[in-house]
Amino acid sequence: MRHTCRGTINLATANITVEDSCNFIISNGGAQTYHLKASSEVERQRWVTALELAKAKAVKMLEESDDSGDESVSQTDKTELQSTLRTLSSKVEDLSTCNDLIAKHGTALQRSLSELETLRLPAESTEKIKQVNERATLFRITSNAMINACRDFLVLAQTHSKKWQKSLQHERDQRIRLEETLEQLAKQHNHLERAFRGATVLPANAPGTGGSAKDPCCPAKGDVSDEDDDNEFFDAPEIITMPESMGHKRTGSNISGTSSDISLDEQYKHQLEDTKKEKRTRIPYKPNYSLNLWSIMKNCIGKELSKIPMPVNFNEPLSMLQRLTEDLEYYELLDRAAKCESSLEQLCYVAAFTVSSYSTTVFRTSKPFNPLLGETFELDRLEENGYRSLCEQVCHHPPAAAHHVDSKHGWTLRQEIKITSKFRGKYLSIMPLGTIHCVFHSSGNHYTWKKVTTTVHNIIVGKLWIDQSGEIEIVNHKTGDKCILKFVPYSYFSRDVARKVTGEVTDPTGKVHFVLLGTWDEKMDCYKVIPAVGDNGAEGRQRAHEAEDSRVLLWKRNPLPKYAENMYYFSELALTLNAPESGTAPTDSRRRPDQRLMENGRWDEANAEKQRLEEKQRISRKRREAEAARATEDGTPYDPYKPLWFERKKDPITQELTHVYKGGYWESKEKQDWTLCPDIF
């Protein structure tokens, strides 16, 4: 078969091997291998014989297919091909005519030169004539070679044209088949969704007050909710019944429980009054909106993934800047590290903090909003937790965000992260580029590390799941201590614990002092290494690793809030990040209208608002490009875009160009002077 589904092996290239009396193996020499077992040796032999015969037939068919004409080629393609070949032939004939003329004139030229040689001329003239004669001969030889090469090219084009045409037709067929398959999947999804809704009609609640405008977290009145987080990813939904005390299902456009005639600013001010009192513990539940996958996919074929305009259905109501700030969920690890007298012990806590930043990703398969250029996000927890954080989107192509955190408990964290992604068909690889710096004030220890690759699996079909893989090297640039963390990629056949992380903390000589073991979604343990007497280092480390009395729990994941599955699987910190706060900059992510509309469940309005913001950003970028072009033409100086709160400098430790916080934000907030902030929303 030329076109196959996933899991098939092409018989023409298959390897069929016998393992023992009843078992045999079929493999394609790559990732696809089948181990088969027959009921008896006779049965096995019948199968192997049948497969070998089928393989011989497949090989013969393949050879015949290669030799046969381009039967599948359309008449239009044939006409185009013949026209091209005719053009090539006429050009070669023109070249051949030119060659004959060159040969004719070249012969006449050589004859004239020979006659000149016989004349009695000065010695110098004779020498010049000989040189010209030699060059004329070389020119004639070269022109002959060129014509021969053109003839060879024509023969080659005629020989391979059929294969090229078949390959082209094969690619076209595959594309058409892919489009048909996607359309079929979309239709099946819609059909299943309608069937599901028709089969699960739940009794309506008694009439009540429902959600009021004063509580943005309480949905509008209606039926018991059948919302589901997986609906976004085209799986068959499950019924999740909410207790009546938690609210009701959203219906119509009044999904957030806020009247549609109330402006977004009024909602923001009203929510502000509530959030001043205490940190919020819930957000409006995710609505159960259907999405026609085909309507998006059919317009995306052949486009670069990063440039596809995605609706908010794929998002969660947080920006990338807020997701970056979520790294601080377990800030206590750095507080404890700041108190450590030993740099090696301190490194253990820094390593645990590094791993803890991935714990929020395990269920979070929605993508955050891409920040607009100049967008900021602050998190001021100086009174409650002793730190305050600031993020700013410093570049749009490629997307890059700078982050700076100061803690009164003696540490500073800074990073600049650029996100690159590659779509591999079945999965999406997300590679954060950039170095993270952590400096402890009292000891002067300066640590750096980079993030690992995040992989989102089952992009097209199936339930989405996330994995982390790769290595992180954490280096203390003052002492030379190192920690190598290994994130083991998930394997169906592995007996290891899923999402496993291992690590070793070493001094500058390479001697191992601590072994780290755990998972990036649950906890990290630390074991002190004391090599046993008479054992080599590896065995000694193993014994210390197994010694339960030396185990120290460095970090354990906080449980998710109640009903987190209905709230995008947000952690307690994530639930508070988009809560309105007074005094923040006009560029703060909390003030972003499309994100606020999505959080309140008004997704159609959010999509329209998202398009407006992206178009506004596009116009600003084009205006800057036009100004730069004019300045170049006029020879006048032009200042490119510069971030407001960060400046680009060469890092003395890593020698990289990176954006570093230049100060001024918190002073501007205290004065409420935001005159320098751009109008991005």
Provide an overview of this structure.
Helix 2 packs antiparallel against helix 3 and helix 7 runs antiparallel to helix 8. About 10% of the residues have low confidence. This protein is α+β, with helices and mostly antiparallel strands and 681 residues long. 38% of the residues lie in helices and 20% in strands. InterPro entries: OSBP_sf, Oxysterol-bd, Oxysterol-bd_CS, PH-like_dom_sf, PH_domain. Its main location: membrane. GO terms for molecular function: sterol binding.
Low-confidence regions: 201-262, 539-545
Strand order of the largest sheet: 9-10-13-14-12-11
Average pLDDT? 79
Radius of gyration, whole Å: 35 Å
Oligomerization state of this entry?
Answer: single chain
Keywords:
681 residues, alpha+beta, 6-stranded antiparallel barrel, 3-stranded antiparallel β-sheet, 21 strands, 38% helix, extended, coiled coil, PH_domain
Summarize this structure briefly:
The chain is of the alpha+beta class and 681 residues long.
Helix and strand topology:
Elements: E1 15-18, E2 23-27, E3 33-37, H1 41-67, H2 75-118, H3 123-199, H4 264-277, H5 293-297, E4 315-319, H6 320-325, H7 332-339, H8 343-356, E5 367-369, E6 376-381, E7 387-395, E8 400-407, E9 411-423, E10 427-433, E11 435-440, E12 446-450, E13 453-457, E14 465-476, E15 482-487, E16 500-506, E17 512-519, E18 523-528, H9 537-546, E19 551-556, H10 572-577, H11 593-599, H12 603-634, E20 646-650, E21 657-661, H13 665-671
Parallel strand pairs: 4-5
Antiparallel strand pairs: 1-2, 2-3, 6-7, 7-8, 8-9, 9-10, 9-11, 10-13, 11-12, 12-14, 13-14, 14-15, 15-16, 16-17, 17-18, 18-19, 20-21
